[in-house]
Predict the 3D structure of the following.
Amino acid sequence: ILVQTLRYWVKDASSLHLLRFFLYEYRNWNSLITSKNSISIFSKRNQRLFLFLYNFYVCEYESIFVFLRNRFSYLRSTSFGALLERIYFHGKLEYLVKVLTKNFRVILWLFKDPFTHYVRYQGKSILSSKGTSFLMHKWKYYLINFWQCHFSVWSQSRRIYINRLSKHSLDFMGFLSSVRLNSSVVRSQMLENSFLIENTIKKFDTIVPIIPLVGSLAKAKFCNVLGHPISKSVWTDLSDSDIIDRFGRIRRNLSHYYSGSSRKKSLYRIKYILRLSCARTLA
């Protein structure tokens, strides 16, 4: 990560090779210039530098989604720095079009009308877009080639999965997200004739994941693995008011976090487990 980050700052190729050799061989040498203990930035206890370098390196190739998102903002007032950065970005896109058109005889019509949402969560990157499976495979192919050409990010295509939200659920931030079809029938009448109009609307659906939540409550000793409430034996020495306050705080936090879910049936079961566990702890 350090070498990949410094390649944007250092233009001398020989210096980069020397730095790569130094970092690779350093762990095998007992001493080189100074001892290992004196260099604190390479110790396992201090991970802030490596975390900063990793985030900086990831943000470099994630910047493409920012420009694709704001590509329709030409009529707005643009700062000088943002204008130069946008010109540099479109230069990269033109280069990518020339390379792919020359080698594979394709046209990047995909970038004409992007409709995407991107998020990175717990080391996983999620890219959502509307379209067919063929369109998503094109996104996958173009992004991998773009990152390899300009950012030296070698992604393995087999580690990138394409799932349709209409058939598969996405586990994200404690929710099970999917897209389901809602049908609505409207009866219209014109003079003596009447007819039905059926409209199908795609709705983004979020479900409370009952199995992971029950597993978390079982680890915390609020219930068993089957979801049957049990007494919280660790809290039996506390006063009744403290026990009620702790159970109430957990219940309120879960209610607030999952209040935006469209299906709350699983949430009601979690509340029931906590309520009965609180009663058995007070008994």
